[in-house]
């Protein structure tokens, strides 16, 4: 039974979700993972990376990102470089960086709507998730999330990535979110938990009222 304290905590999570992620779509609420052999596709030359839109990043953050991946120049020197030079250096590094390459053989459908794919990739720059397209997909402009690393359970990372790109996490993630997470629950983790809670409530509302067909255009603001 939900206590008053639990209700307050859930509302705090919803509020943090709205604060950090804004308005979320329910398009991918019933999406499922799809097995994909990314390594085989890459060997066959059928897989191309989506590089981040470094132009949309602040110079200071871009300098930090380059410094984290290269020791060729001191951080102070990078921060003094012209933005165009930083972008060119970042593009060069990104081609050698595995951060945009799937490491696990699954992909997770996501609808970007009007979001540019390179800007979407940029939004995931500090996560263990990347944005990909699947060459074997009959829909040429379909996008997917993929994990760039393994672990015990990266459901939190997947849920966070969906929310960052404007979608409620799919039910299979939202309903089985593991308890293992940084404590206390705050910030991005609290917002991600809120997104999962809203996903569950939205699914219940749609199913209870027999409105599941609205998911393709449903937006949530609670």
Characterization of this structure:
The chain has helices at residues 4-21, 38-43, 59-69, 75-79, 83-96, 117-123, 155-164, 171-174, 187-208; strands at residues 24-25, 34-35, 106-110, 129-132, 143-147, 219-220. It is of the alpha+beta class. The strands form two sheets. It has a four-stranded antiparallel sheet. It has a two-stranded antiparallel sheet with strand order 1-6. The mean pLDDT is 82.
Helix residue percentage: 40-55%
In terms of quaternary structure, what is this? single chain
Q: Give the strand line-up of the largest sheet.
A: 2-3-5-4
Number of helices: 9
SSE layout and pairing:
Layout: H1 4-21, E1 24-25, E2 34-35, H2 38-43, H3 59-69, H4 75-79, H5 83-96, E3 106-110, H6 117-123, E4 129-132, E5 143-147, H7 155-164, H8 171-174, H9 187-208, E6 219-220
Which tags fit this structure?
222 residues; single chain; four-stranded antiparallel sheet; globular; two-stranded antiparallel sheet; 2 domains; alpha+beta
Summarize the structure.
The chain is an alpha+beta fold.
């Amino acid at each position: 039974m939900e206590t008053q304290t639990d209700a307050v905590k859930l509302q705090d999570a919803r509020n943090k979700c709205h604060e950090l992620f804004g308005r979320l779509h329910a398009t991918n609420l019933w999406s499922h993972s799809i097995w994909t052999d990314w390594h085989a596709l890459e060997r066959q030359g059928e897989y191309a990376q989506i590089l981040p839109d470094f132009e949309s990043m602040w110079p200071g953050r871009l300098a930090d990102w380059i410094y984290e991946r290269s020791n060729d120049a001191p951080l102070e020197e990078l921060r003094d470089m012209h933005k165009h030079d930083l972008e060119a250096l970042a593009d060069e590094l990104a081609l050698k960086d595995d951060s945009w390459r799937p490491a696990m053989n699954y992909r997770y459908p996501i609808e970007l709507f009007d979001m540019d794919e390179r800007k979407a990739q940029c939004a995931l720059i500090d996560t263990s998730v990347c944005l990909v397209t699947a060459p074997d997909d009959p829909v040429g402009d379909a996008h997917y999330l993929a994990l760039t690393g393994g672990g015990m359970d990266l459901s939190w990372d997947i849920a966070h990535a969906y929310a960052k790109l404007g979608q409620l996490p799919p039910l299979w993630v939202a309903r089985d979110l593991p308890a293992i997470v940084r404590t206390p629950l705050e910030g991005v983790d609290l917002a991600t938990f809120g997104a999962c809670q809203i996903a569950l409530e939205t699914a219940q509302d749609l199913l209870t009222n027999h409105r599941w067909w609205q998911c393709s255009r449903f937006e949530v603001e609670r």
